[in-house]
Amino acid sequence: MLESLRRRVCDVAVEMERLGLVRGTAGNVSARDPDGSGLVAVTPTSLPYRRMTADDVVILDPDGSVRWGRRRPTSETPMHTVVLRERPDVGGLVHTHSIHALSFAVVNREIPVVHLEAVYRLGEVVPVARHAPPGTEELGRRALEALGGPDGPRACLLQNHGVLAVGAGVEEALANALAVEEAAHCYHLALRLGEPIRVTRDHLRRSMD
Ligand SMILES: [Zn+2]
Fold first, then answer.
1. CATH number of the CATH domain containing 188
2. How far is ligand 1, taken at its centre, from the CA of residue 104, in Å?
3. CA distance 201 to 1
4. Is the full-model pTM beyond 0.90?
5. Which residue in the list 17, 76, 124, 172 is annotated as catalytic?
6. Which residues contact 54 (CB under 8 A, 6 or more apart)?
7. What pLDDT sits at residue 93?
8. For residue 161, how far is its CA from the centre of ligand 1 (angstroms)?
9. Which of the four pLDDT bands, split at 50, 70 and 90, describes residue 207?
10. Beta partners for 166?
């Protein structure tokens, strides 16, 4: 069932680990069927990415119940499915614990995005969603608050936990998750050198002239 979607989710999950955004079995990935069935493909729980194949990815109904698969879905399934239900513009989600972004999340501080190219992708800040326990729908609802609507940020931090990135497709969600980690890393390094210059709307306007 939905083999090409399962393959895309698996490929993104493997790439997420290759990029160093997670280790072992941490993090999770989901994608909505682009053909309008409402079905969702998610990574399984407790399986190392280096051993994962498309056949390990689980297919869910929109409410999160398992439709197809030989494994149990990620424990963060309620977070993924509530975001996909509430945001029809979102087709894929990537959740990581990437270390520089996580360091902002544990001090409950938004990431100022100071690299011009990253601002185009992410917006001017990566906000922090209020705390909610892992594995709950409440965590997804907190993320929805932080993300706002379709014109809002493309990712948020989960307080004391990690990163949730969204995209029109799951590949875009991964690119956004990577951009969040790079933005956090860049800000850390820049702080050692001096006071990072915040990107203003004026900067953005001039660069498009
Ligand atoms: Zn997590």
1. 3.40.225.10
2. 15
3. 46
4. yes
5. 76
6. 3, 6, 7, 9, 10
7. 98
8. 6
9. low
10. 93
